[in-house]
Amino acid sequence: MKKEEHLRKLGGILGPFLGLLLVLAIFSLMPEISGRFLRLANFKNVAIQSVIVALSALGMTLIIISGGIDLSAASNLALSCVLVAYFIQAGFSPWLAALLSVLNGGLIGFLNGFLITRLKVVPFIVTLGMMGMARGIAKWVAHNQKIDAPITWLNSLMARSPRPSWLLLSPGIWLMIIMAVVVGVLLRKTVFGRHVFAVGSNEMTARLCGVRTDRVKLAVYTISGLLCGLAGLMEFSRLTVGDPTVAIGLELDIIAAVVIGGGSLSGGEGKISGTLIGVFIMAFLRNGCTMMGWPNYFQEIIIGAIIITAVALDRLRHGQE
Amino acid sequence: MKKRRPDFPVLWLMVFLILVSGFYACGSREKAGEQKASSARYKVAVIPKGTTHEFWKAVQAGALKAGQELGVEIFWKGPQKEDDRSQQIQVVEDFISRRVNGIVLAPLDDRALMRPVDESMAEGIPVVIIDSNLQGDNYISFVATDNYQGGVLAARRLAEVMSGKGKIFLIRYLEGSASTTYREQGFLETVTREFPGLEILVKDQYAGTTTESAYQLVENLLSRYPQVEGIFAPNESSTFGALRALQDSGLAGKVKLVGFDSSEKLIQALRQHQLHGLVLQDPMKMGYLGVKVLVDYLEGKPVEKRVDTGVVVATPENMDQPEIKRLLEPEVKKYVR
Amino acid sequence: MEQKVILSARGISKSFGLTPVLKNVDLELKSGEVRALLGENGAGKSTLIKIFSGALKPDSGVMSVEGQAYCPESPLEGRKKGLAVIYQELNLAPHLSVEENIMLGQEKQRLGFVERKKNREKIKQVLSFLHHPEISPDIPVWQLPIGARQVVEIARALVSKAKILIMDEPTSSLSQEDSRRLFEIIRSLKAEGVGIIYVSHFLEEVMEVADTFTVLRDGEVTGAGEIAGTSVEQLISLMIGKRMEELYPEPDFQPGEVILKVENLQGQKMGSPVTLTLRRGEILGVAGLVGSGRTEFLRAVFGLDRIKGGLLIISGKEFRPRHPRESIKQGLGFLSEDRQVEGLALKMNISDNLTLSRLDFYSRYGFLDHQKQKESARQLISQLGIKARNPEQPVWTLSGGNQQKVALARLLHQQAEVFLLDEPTRGIDVLSKAHLYELIVELSRKQKAVIFVSSYFPELLGVCQRIAVFYRGKLVDVREREQWTEEALMKAAITGNTDNSISKAKVDRME
Fold first, then answer.
1. Chain C residues touching residue A201 (CB < 8 angstroms)
2. Pairwise CA distance, residues C443 & C333, whole Å
3. What is the tens place of the pLDDT at every residue in A276-304?
4. Which whole number is the average pLDDT over A34-48?
5. What range does the domain containing C222 cover?
């Protein structure tokens, strides 16, 4: 009995994990790149490419578990990316610029949460509106072009080889790992985390049990906004310019990562580990397809197929229990 | 509790799908007439700004042509989303991981692509920049159209059809777009220097990225300045927008129009004398030379830091000459499926 | 007019699994006749209706419509044979117009195009026949009041040339005025020769509108005949019959101090204000039919619906609930009547469901002590005899009875003093019911206070010390258990009439 329970718990993460192994196996078997793909350098490369999506996907996991959705994530990210550049160009210190832009991300998230809980408008609509607004503000701040900011230490956060070499991994990757652990602990080990699951699983029950559902949602959207702000900062670090058109359509990749990792759009389900695996599956696919020189449409088809497969697989597992 | 067996067929389905489509992709690449990987001397990645525009198709054709002639395997790969700087960086990084012999890159941003190019050079993978410039000079060569010269030619052509006098518009494309800014600059400076008879009515209006926005701008300008006699537009979409606006107000052919880059509709307009000149770049040559310069470098031959791929003006009179026709309608199909 | 038999059913039997729901039921309906189909909840009325409509197939028995053998494969076939059912919850598409709703699936058309004019004429004709010519065919149904929606549904049945109409609790959500108009419609339909099977709890209405009756109890016909010459009391005793009593534990009430006092409490959704007192160690039953206002009363006390007026006093202190969180702190515990939709987070595991209302207990600086939480869950599981493998099992894998025990255990875990139980025994098997009664009585022995809401009156009589009755949004009577009989409860709940030979206890009537 005990063993089967463990198996069942493991099964939730096993599916996506097998998918990741599969992707890795397929590309390492391709003769053209077999020597290159399974290298530490390439893994670091993919890890850096994953940082931005991963940070936003952590927040999205919280939101999806709570039964919501955030379509404004990518626009929020772009706005934050533009703001860092704007503040640095305006002569602020990099620290202050970074702080302000991350806080702005939190503010956008808070606004999402506020509108959803107060106006009782569904998250899809509120964040759809916010998606346009944040993107518009980003373009406005940047006068519809990119902002060239002077190079600062912020731009070395996402370097392939870290500046003080004892870091081993670039600071961006460390940030991703730390945030994943923090959000994971928040979700699994705290009262707040239980409340997030309860709200997503059955909001009426949560209310009945004295959970202040509105506050939980507000907190979830704010945290997610902060993480998007952080992702925007990383995006700036990578681009070295503030680009208001960056990450268009990225919100769908973010949502896909959560869904591949076992998140349910009807709420109450989702895992940080699963989400990260979802992010890596997509990143490795992109990396592998590029290394093979396969055309873009091909990798889009595969990722689409994987999303459907992952969710179908999840349904199947549920159906059996 | 039941066993969780049925997961596995789904997984197998996934394997099957990826493999089948993988082989399909490989197969189609070979069909395109490319050299087999094994027989190629070098592997070269060519990274455009996007993959769907005609212009980039022609660049691809040129690159593949060079690949065939020089025995080089070409990887043609753009950012997954058109014009996405972040994704173009990823593509460069992935090819560094792949350790190709060299990269030919059309950077989406003169700043953002600097670091990946630096990294590539540092790892011993030479980079040739095509089409748009990159800040700094840590690359092998810059192979591109001389856009300033294109603007000069456009000014001369417009002056020619207007007999050196009259009132004109300069329609600008987009703030911060380097190549079109050079064209506009070349045009403006040539007009003020060489043709005092031409009076510039408008020179600070931006057409924006779409045909629609260009159309609206020109329409508004036409009603504001009905006395206009000539227009220059610095790229394909703004040229077409201006042409549509002229056609709809019945002025096509009366107001002289000189544009930049070609498309089917613009060729037609040229033939009907609604368009009086079209400055043409040579994207195929750009793709060809990009690869050629890189291979020269790899073989230890000296290379120029700046290679011009040339510009010419197509006019209704010369448009059927073979060298102009080749540029108006590049033989893309011969190389790209 | 010659009355001929249009629907006849002989020897209908139906079982779900091993449980027989209908046993050898006979029923006959003549044209122009209104036959009342009576019985308590669970007597088999809705199963019988489903068999008539074609939604279910009987295990045995024969039916005929207008002398022709009738064994429908689907509700659609039933409709084609001229039989239409108007369900309690109306089956209309709220965003479509009246016309579109009426014609849905039976549009007059030529070459695939809707013939609007013909449709329109037909609808006008039907609506004026139903005494509702004022209903415009163009407005969307959601804009209509509930009574008018029912008319639309009847109109739909008429357009489809139905000869047999089955109305399932048609007046349960109608105002008195709308009910009266409905009876006029029924009379017009009778005159047209339509046969009607009329299912209702409200016996006074039945006496007014029906010609004949058939009473079901536990799946069997206990009586049938003419309404004329039959009394309400006779009908009630046919519905109730005799019943076993050993399900219920021996209560032993020792009421203590007053813990909950409700004075003129008026919730947002309550029909009229309510005054009640509740003592420690007491089980107060609340009887009433669906929609009688009993649930709304409980929800207002718990702070789920807003309170417009009146006082709530808990242990001598005034309390104004704004959020369930505060009510829980005050020692109130609420069990929802709908455990699937509201009561439980089905995807979460037992341990989380049990402790959700008091997670703070396991937290230190916001971090949860999972071991301690699981330990408590294990204790509660064994204390209540919940059949589960372990505390990590998701709640949706449990049976209905065990789910309900989880919901009840949560109230114990949050250390509630006043238990507000809304239909705690709905949809669970007899053994679990007996276990729940035992648990509830146990609560009273521990000097907790319980309000027990149910529409199954025998259990109230079996478990409670006092019983209050709600009727159409009003609290009509509260009496000691000894002063109620099942007949009296039933009569009070379905007529609001408490004039009875038994001496009158205190009546909380505020008007």
1. 345-348
2. 12
3. 999 999 999 889 888 888 888 888 888 88
4. 87
5. 5-240
> If you ran DSSP here, which 8-state letter would residue C340 be given?
I
Complex-level ipTM beyond the 0.95 threshold: no
Which residue range is the domain that position A121 belongs to? 50-157+166-248
The verdict on A315 touching C (C-beta cutoff 8 Å) is no
CATH number, position C427 = 3.40.50.300
Question: Looking at the structure, do residues C180 and C281 belong to the same domain, yes or no?
Answer: no
The per-residue pLDDT for B270 is 92
pTM of the complete model: 0.77
Where does A190-295 have alpha helices with state H?
191-201, 203-208, 213-239, 250-260, 272-292
Token couple for A30: 């391709």
Instruction: Report the gap between the CA of B3 and the closest CA in chain A (Å).
Output: 8
Phi, psi of C57, rounded to the nearest 5 degrees: -105, 135
Domains of chain B: 34-145+283-309 (3.40.50.2300), 147-280 (3.40.50.2300)
Q: Which residue carries 């026949």 as its tokens?
A: C129
Question: What's the whole-number average pLDDT of chain C?
Answer: 84
Total domains, chain A? 1
Residues of chain B with pLDDT under 50: 1-8, 30-38
Shortest alpha-carbon distance between residue C358 and chain A (Å): 8
What is the C-alpha separation between B218 and B243, in angstroms, rounded?
9
| B91 at A interface, C-beta within 8 A | yes
Predicted local distance difference test score (pLDDT) of residue C120: 83
Contact A209 C324 (CB under 8 A): yes
Determine the average pLDDT of the residues in A131-136: 95
Task: Please tell me the least confidently modeled range out of A88-97, A143-152, C81-90, C360-369.
Answer: C81-90
Q: How wide is the angle at C-alpha B309 spanned by C-alphas B318 and B114, nearest 5°?
A: 145
Contact A202 C336 (CB under 8 A): no
C70 and C112 together in one domain? yes
Query: pLDDT band for position A321 (50/70/90)?
Result: very low
3-state secondary structure of B305: coil
The reply to whether residue B21 touches residue A286, judged by beta carbons under 8 angstroms, is no
Let me know if residue C245 belongs to a domain: no
User: Which of A34, A48, A160, A290 is the mutation pick for testing B, counting most B CBs within 10 A?
Assistant: A290
Where is B271: in which H helix or E strand?
Answer: helix B264-271
Instruction: Write down the pLDDT at residue C505.
Output: 40
- Rounded distance, CA A49 to CA A238, Å? 10
pLDDT in tens, B297-328: 999 999 999 999 989 999 999 988 888 888 88
Q: For the segment C158-192, what is each residue's pLDDT rounded down to a tens digit?
A: 887 888 999 888 877 677 778 888 888 889 888 88
Q: Touching check for B52 and chain A: CB below 8 Å?
A: no
Chain C residues whose beta carbon lies within 8 Å of the beta carbon of residue A268:
345, 347-348
Among A8, A248, A305, the residue with its CB nearest the CB of B84 is A248
Name the neighbours of C, counting chains with at least 3 Cβ pairs within 8 A.
A
Q: What's B234's DSSP letter?
A: S
Token pair 């916010």 is found at A130
Q: Are residues C76 and C126 in the same domain?
A: yes
Partners of B115 on chain A (C-beta within 8 Å) are 155, 159, 240
Backbone angles phi, psi at C79, to 5 degrees: -60, -45
- For A197, the closest of C329, C348, C360 (CB atoms) is C348
